[in-house]
Amino acid sequence: MKIAGGEGEAARPLLEEKPDVYFDGCPGCAMDRRKAENPGIPYGLFFHTWIINLVTCLPVSSLFPFLYFMIRDLGIAKKVEDIGFYAGFVGASYMLGRALTSIFWGILADRIGRKPIIVITTLSSLVFNTLFGLSMHYWMAISTRFLLGFLNGSLGTIRAYAVEVCRPEHHAIGLSLVNTSWAIALIIGPAIGGYFAQPTEKFPNLFSNDSLFGRFPYFLPCLFISIICFVVLISCIWLPETLHTHKVHNKEDQHPESLITYLSDSKEFDKQCSTSTKNKGLLTNWPLMSSIILFCIACFDDMAYSEIFSLWAESDKKYGGLSFSSEDVGNVLVVTGASILLYQTFIYPHIAQVFGLINSSRVATILSMVLLFTYPPMANLSRPWLSIVVNVASVFKSCSVATVVTCSFILQNNSVPQDQRATANGIATTLMSLFKAFAPAGAGIVFSWAQKHQHASIFPGDQMVFFLLDVVVLFELIWTFKPFLDIPKQTSSS
Hints:
By secondary structure, the protein is mainly α. It contains 18 helices and no strands. It is globular, with a radius of gyration of 23 Å. The chain crosses the membrane at residues 43-71, 83-105, 117-140, 146-163, 175-198, 218-239, 288-312, 332-351, 363-379, 385-411, 431-451, 463-481. Residues 45-488 form the Major facilitator superfamily (MFS) profile domain.
């Protein structure tokens, strides 16, 4: 049986199970027949997938502009220099919760379907994001963020879903669009968090200190996001399932009344069915695991950088920071998010086509290392040059991370068959979440230490922070080479 490919063999997944028969009542077969009959790009399904992933990312990105001030107002930090320490654990709690359950959600999605997991995640985002905005104590902020991550099972599921709603030649587009939802979250989330947090200070004519939003100064941005979650939750009613619910091991198991279309000879049919049902050990699949490790390092870099950037930008200049307000940080993240969207949609596909997935990632990591060395001297600039330089550096840094992350997405999904895809993405999400749980906690601790050692003779605090980030990116670059990264044969490494 021939499998539809994209631009040569490089665009074809390692194992693409295109069913030889379509069974009545099987949602996976219905989706595969839809793909066979409509070879074009499924823009409608891509948009639905994209917006679902968006609402699960918004709670992660929206708190960056106001987390520094929220920790200050909760009164847990006795000194200004300790704010970064406690802020790091708020970010870490979400990732820790997600790390504990991502494999479970992936396995469950491979058994009961993609749609139920997506619905559960969207509902939990609505509930616990709202409760986070109502936090009056540090323990409540930590626990609601933890539960938000604990019940978030859609990240790995969405990646599996994105390649199952389209033909193989469109997989790169589907995964890239999933990644752009994070870029949009970096636009909308920080904008919501930066503009709507502390509304009594920013809009005193609309909100009084005695109002609900005066008592809970960080509730308004969370409420706004929860309303978006509610709308998306309702839209999930029309979300089609993609998981195959029938089990076929040979031609004799077929029932004539179920057979809609027979596409190949019996030898090829038996070969494909045996391949798709074989229980392979995912943890021993080195092409999969090596791409997951690359993904984890890139996500650690991204999360640690995001945590440090906001804290560093909002800290006072006497501590090596930029003295930015929450609105200033929100503006930078909005510009960065918009740039990532444009980059992922219009620029990255051409770069990957010309240079290949791996070489593009290597160039991106080298650029990232160079950029990080330029951050500490920015504190010596004055406006408007300061804002211009910070925005440009932030855009290039985030686009570099997006390049490596998209590369790892494609490698992961090309390394496994469909009946293991959600579980594989669940493993990736678990390991990535562990890395991301440690990243903000570690970054917060390092940042707090740096503020207390700003006047050290060798590597002052702010320089040490960005030097350590550079070390992480160096490991990221090393991992793109053999023998660390094992590339599936059907994926171009040039």
